[in-house]
# Entry
Amino acid sequence: MDFKILWIDDEPSWVASVRGSIEDHLKERGFTPEIIHLEDGGQIDDYIFRADIDIMIVDYNLDEGEDSSGDKIIEYVRNKGSFLEIVFYSQDPSALLNKLSAHKEHVHCSARDDVDEKIRELIAFSKYKYGNLGYMRGSVIAEAIDIENLLEEIAVASFREQGDRFRTRVIDKLGTTYGLSQKYVYVQGLLKSTCSDLAARQDRTLDDNKRLGPAQARFLRPARDRPRIGAEIACMLFP
# Structure
């Protein structure tokens, strides 16, 4: 089983001095380790929603300035809706939790010298999670509830000013009868309909271009091609 760690620290040499021990520890417990090291949070959006990232490790003191300190990165991650387990460390860990304000859940603070041990503790907890069917079942159910709530919000929003009426007369009235699968089917149909509308709009745009001069058509074509490309991709995702 793969075990991937996202590690944010602006001192590559220090990370390199610790990562070997962590990788060996993971191998001894049957994992295939991969540590992704970033020196700042500039690329964090590429990783925080990847399902294969198991834990995140963040240094408090980064060279990018106060706005890019470790606590700001954690706050950003949480505000984006990611609840990765995080090891948060500093030379002086005593004030770390206070730095986090309201984002303390699933954050494990550590002194820099003890971060190796803290990571090992979190690895042990992760191994327990993956081997515990009750925990995994609960996680799957929680994810399914989140997906259903998101689909419900999309469905309600599609009715615009009549959204509250749709929620009251259909969703609330039918209860579990109008569950996850029904909401998925509705949103899937909504997306397919949007694909068709975008394609039809593109066809009308192409007709308009034929009535323009060659120079005008060349100028407008790149911007007007983009909706068609997006529609075709969406239709591939929801055939």
User: Anything to note?
Assistant: The chain has two domains: 2-131, 149-237.
